Each structure stands twice: as structure tokens, then as C-alpha cells.
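Reopening this ticket.

The earlier resolution said the output was attached, but the attachment link was broken on my side. Pasting everything inline this time so it's all in one place.
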Amino acid sequence: MAAPLQSWTQNVTRRLAGRTTGGSGHAPLLTASSAWLALQGRTGIPIGRATFYRWLSNGKIFSVRIGTKMYIPLSVIEEIVRRCQSGEGL
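Inline output:
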């Protein structure tokens, strides 16, 4: 028997919360467009929207799809910013 979507999304959020925030109960998730804008603003690199979404679909950037929306953990964006600042590639 399939689990209802609401309970499934709560389980995914709990698992992400344990991984990204040390178990506080809520994972800081950004929508794809918010993550794209945050990445541009924090790195100063003009990343195209199409390029960012291609990275999401290729798996270069970890994301969680819930329904029709994609969410990116804030910790993933922070890691990318850290790598950009240190001169590493994506």
C-alpha cells in the first residue's frame, strides 16, 4: 500500500533535517529559483537560469522533488559557495 503524499514528504523532510541541521526537525530548504538567486548573489558569478536548472537535472546540485517543485537544502548552496570562494570547481 502506498504512503499518502503528505506523510511521505514529512518523512523526506525529517531525513533531510537530520542530515542538514543536526536533527532540529526542520531542514532549511530553498526553492530552485531562490537557490539560484542566492547562489548568484553570494558568489557574484552570473549563472544563467537554464544552466542552474541543467545542473539540477544532471545531479550536479542535489535537490529533492516534492510534487512538481524542486527544493535544495541550504547546506548544499553553502557548500557550493565555499567551493567557489576557495577556487574549486563545481
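Reporter confirms the inline version is readable. Strands lie at 29-31, 64-66, 69-73. The CA atoms of residues 27 and 70 lie 14 Å apart.
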